[in-house]
Write a structure and sequence with these properties.
- The complex is a heterodimer of chains A (about 300) and B (about 260).
- Chain A has one domain: ABC transporter involved in vitamin B12 uptake, BtuC, CATH 1.10.3470.
- Chain A contains eleven helices and four strands.
- Chain A has about 300 residues and is mostly helical.
- In chain A, strands 1-4 form a two-stranded antiparallel sheet.
- Chain B is built from eleven helices and ten strands.
- Chain B has a single domain, classed as Rossmann fold (3-Layer(aba) Sandwich), CATH 3.40.50.
- In chain B, a hairpin with a 2-residue loop joins strand 9 and strand 10.
- In chain B, helix 5 crosses helix 6.
- In chain B, strands 6-7-8-3-9-10 form a six-stranded mixed sheet, sandwiched between helices. A four-stranded antiparallel sheet of chain B has the order 2-1-4-5, covered by helices on one side.
- Chain B has about 260 residues and is α/β, with parallel strands linked by helices.
- Classes of the chains: A mainly alpha (about 300), B alpha/beta (about 260).
- At the A-B interface, helix 5, helix 6 and helix 7 of A face helix 2, helix 3 and helix 4 of B.
Chain lengths: ~300, ~260
C-alpha cells in the first residue's frame, strides 16, 4: 500500500510534465488543425531559457548586490522564462506556420520537424555539446508521511502544474480570447467576420502553449537537473500521444491523457523491469486507441466549416 | 455621402467573371434587396463587400473611407455585420457565447486583464453579457441563452445568427437569405424581426432573398442581378413591372 501511494505521487509528477506539454499541442491543433511537431523542442528551449534566467539570478544574488531567496528566484525564473519562451513560439508561428496555412498538411507537418531540428542544433551551436545542470534553487526536503516519501519538489511540481492548467481552463472559458480560440476550433471563415483578428489569436495560442512548455521545462529541471539539447524529442512524442489520446483539440482531454500516460508508465515500471517500461506502457496505450480511435473527448468526424 | 458606396466593382475567379461593374449606394436606415437567379453572384457580392474576397477592380467606401482590401475583422469592426445562407453557427458553443464573441472588438480589456482577471475584465464581460442578453431578447431567444445551438429549432437558430451579426455593432446589416428553409410561421416571425431591427436600431439592411413577396414588402429599393450584372434597380413596383426582370427572373411567379 505504501509502495502504491509512493508511485501515485511519482505518476502525478510525470503526468504533470506530459499534460503541460500536451496542452500546447492540443491548443495549436484545435485552432490550426495541425500539430506543431516542434513543440517538444520548445519545451527544451524553455528549460534552457529557464536555466539561463535562473543561473543569471543566482549569480546576481551571489554578488550580494540583491540577495534573493531561492523561491523568489524560482518564481521570477518561471515568469521570465514563460515570457521569453512565448516569443520563441510566436516566431515559430510567424516564420514556420503562417506562410504555410493554405499549404498541404504534409508541408506544415515537416515544417514542425525542421524547426525542431533547427532548435536542437541551434542550441548545440550556442551551448556546445555539453550537458548543463539546472541550479537547485530550492533545498530538497523529504517528508515521511506514514512511510511514503514525498519531496517538496514533487509537491511543488504537481501543484504548480495543476494551478497553470486551471488558469488556462479559466482563460479559455471566461475571456474573449479564449472564446475566440474555441470558435476558431470549428471555423476560420465566420470568426473574422465577427470582428475577431484570427492571426492575433493564432499567435496568442502559440505563445500560451510555449509558455506552458517553459513551465514544464523549468519544473523538469528542478526534478532532473541535467539538460541536453535532445531532451525534448521523446517528451514531445509522448506528449503528442497524450494530445491525440485526449481527443484532438480537447484541453480537458489532453490534461487527463497526460496524467494517464504518467500513471501507466509508472505503474508498468512498478510491476515490470524498468527497461520494459515504455514497451509495455505504449502497447497498452495503443490498445486504448484501438478501442477509442477518436480519443477521450474527440469528435468522430471533423465538422469544421470551410469556405 | 452615402453610408455605403460601391463604385464599379468587378471580380474575376480565374477566367470567370463573377461580378461586373457593380454599383451600390445605401443610405442610413434604408432596406435594400438583391434578387436574381441561382448562381447570379449575389453571395459573391456579399463576400466581396465583407472582405472574404478582395475585388479585382472597383472601390468600396464605408462612411467615405475605402475598405476594399482590409482584413475581414477590420471591416466587421468598422460596421458591416452579416448572416449566412447556410447557417454558420459554432455548434459546440452556447447561444450566449455566440453573441458575446461577436462583441470581441467592442470589449475594452487586454491580455493583462484576461490573464489576471482584473476588475476591468469582469466589468467589461458583465457589460457585454447584459448587452448580449438584450439582443437575444429582441430576437425572442433569450430563454435559450445557455443552450448549445444544435438543440434549437431552425427558426431560432436563424435568429441567433441575426443576434450575432447585430452584436458586431453594424451600420449596415447583410442578410443572406434570412428566411431560407423556413416554414410560414417562422417566416412571419423573421419579417417582424427585420422590421423591428430596422425601427429600433436604425441601421441599413441589405438582404438577398428568394421569396419575392418578402422582398417586395420589406425593401425600399431592389436590384436584380443576372450573370454578375445588375439588369434593373428600382422600387418594388418598378422591379415588378420591369420587362427585363420578368423575362430574366420573375417569369412565372409574376403570373401567379
Amino acid at each position: 500500500m505504501v509502495f502504491f501511494l509512493q508511485n501515485i505521487i511519482n505518476a502525478l509528477q510525470w503526468g504533470s510534465f506530459y499534460a503541460m506539454i500536451a496542452l500546447g499541442y492540443s491548443m495549436v491543433y484545435s485552432i490550426l488543425m495541425l500539430f506543431n511537431f516542434a513543440h517538444g523542442d520548445i519545451f527544451m528551449v524553455g528549460a534552457y531559457i529557464g536555466f539561463g534566467v535562473a543561473t543569471g539570478l543566482v549569480t546576481l544574488s551571489a554578488t550580494g548586490f540583491i540577495a534573493l531567496p531561492g523561491w523568489v528566484i524560482l518564481v521570477l525564473t518561471i515568469l521570465l522564462s514563460m515570457f521569453l519562451t512565448s516569443f520563441v513560439g510566436m516566431i515559430v508561428e510567424r516564420v514556420g506556420y503562417r506562410p504555410l496555412r493554405d499549404a498541404p498538411r504534409a508541408s506544415a507537418a515537416i515544417t514542425g520537424l525542421m524547426i525542431g531540428i533547427i532548435l536542437e542544433t541551434g542550441n548545440l551551436a550556442l551551448m556546445g555539446a555539453r550537458r548543463v545542470s539546472f541550479p537547485p534553487l530550492i533545498e530538497s526536503v523529504t517528508y515521511n508521511i506514514g512511510g511514503v516519501f514525498v519531496t517538496n519538489k514533487k509537491i511543488l511540481i504537481v501543484v504548480v502544474s495543476l494551478a497553470f492548467m486551471l488558469a488556462l481552463h479559466l482563460f479559455v472559458q471566461r475571456t474573449r480570447y479564449g472564446m475566440a480560440m474555441r470558435a476558431m476550433a470549428f471555423d476560420f471563415v465566420v470568426v473574422p467576420l465577427m470582428g475577431v483578428p484570427v492571426n492575433t489569436i493564432a499567435r496568442l495560442t502559440f505563445a500560451i502553449g510555449s509558455a506552458l512548455a517553459a513551465v514544464a521545462g523549468i519544473l523538469f529541471g528542478l526534478a532532473y537537473p541535467v539538460l541536453d539539447p535532445y531532451m525534448g524529442i521523446v517528451f514531445g512524442w509522448k506528449a503528442f500521444v497524450a494530445a491525440i489520446l485526449g481527443g484532438r483539440g480537447s484541453i480537458m482531454g489532453a490534461t487527463l491523457a497526460g496524467f494517464l500516460l504518467g500513471f501507466i508508465e509508472i505503474f508498468v515500471a512498478m510491476i515490470f523491469p524498468s527497461t520494459l517500461r515504455d514497451l509495455i506502457a505504449y502497447s497498452i496505450i495503443l490498445l486504448i486507441l484501438v478501442f477509442r480511435p477518436h480519443g477521450f473527448f474527440g469528435e468522430p468526424y471533423s465538422a469544421r466549416l470551410r469556405l | 455621402m452615402a453610408l455605403l458606396e460601391i463604385r464599379h466593382m468587378t471580380h474575376h475567379f480565374g477566367g470567370l467573371r463573377a461580378v461586373h461593374d457593380y454599383n451600390l449606394s445605401i443610405e442610413p436606415g434604408q432596406v435594400r434587396g438583391l434578387i436574381g437567379p441561382n448562381g447570379a453572384g449575389k453571395t459573391t457580392i456579399f463576400n466581396l463587400i465583407t472582405g472574404i474576397y478582395r475585388p479585382s477592380e472597383g472601390q468600396i467606401l464605408l462612411d467615405g473611407a475605402p475598405i476594399a482590401g482590409l482584413a475581414p475583422y477590420q471591416i466587421a469592426d468598422r460596421g458591416l455585420g452579416r448572416t449566412f445562407q447556410d447557417l454558420r453557427l459554432w455548434r459546440h458553443m452556447t447561444v450566449l457565447e455566440h453573441v458575446k464573441l461577436a462583441h470581441y472588438s467592442k470589449l475594452r480589456y487586454g491580455l493583462f486583464g484576461a490573464f489576471f482577471g482584473t476588475p476591468a475584465r469582469h466589468r467589461e464581460e458583465d457589460r457585454i453579457t447584459r448587452r448580449s442578453m438584450e439582443l437575444l431578447e429582441m430576437m425572442n431567444v433569450a430563454h435559450l441563452a445557455d443552450q448549445l445551438v444544435p438543440n434549437l429549432p431552425y427558426g431560432a437558430q436563424r435568429r441567433v445568427e441575426m443576434a450575432r451579426a447585430l452584436a458586431t455593432g453594424p451600420k449596415v446589416l447583410f442578410l443572406d437569405e434570412p428566411t431560407a428553409g423556413m416554414n410560414p410561421e417562422e417566416l412571419i416571425q423573421m419579417m417582424a424581426i427585420i422590421r423591428k431591427v430596422r425601427q429600433s436600431l436604425g441601421l441599413a439592411i441589405f438582404l438577398i432573398e428568394h421569396r419575392l413577396k418578402m422582398v417586395m414588402e420589406l425593401c425600399d429599393i431592389i436590384q436584380t442581378l443576372v450573370f454578375g450584372e445588375v439588369i434593373a434597380e428600382g422600387s418594388p413596383e418598378e422591379i415588378q413591372n420591369n420587362p427585363a426582370v420578368i423575362e430574366a427572373y420573375l417569369g412565372k411567379e409574376i403570373v401567379e
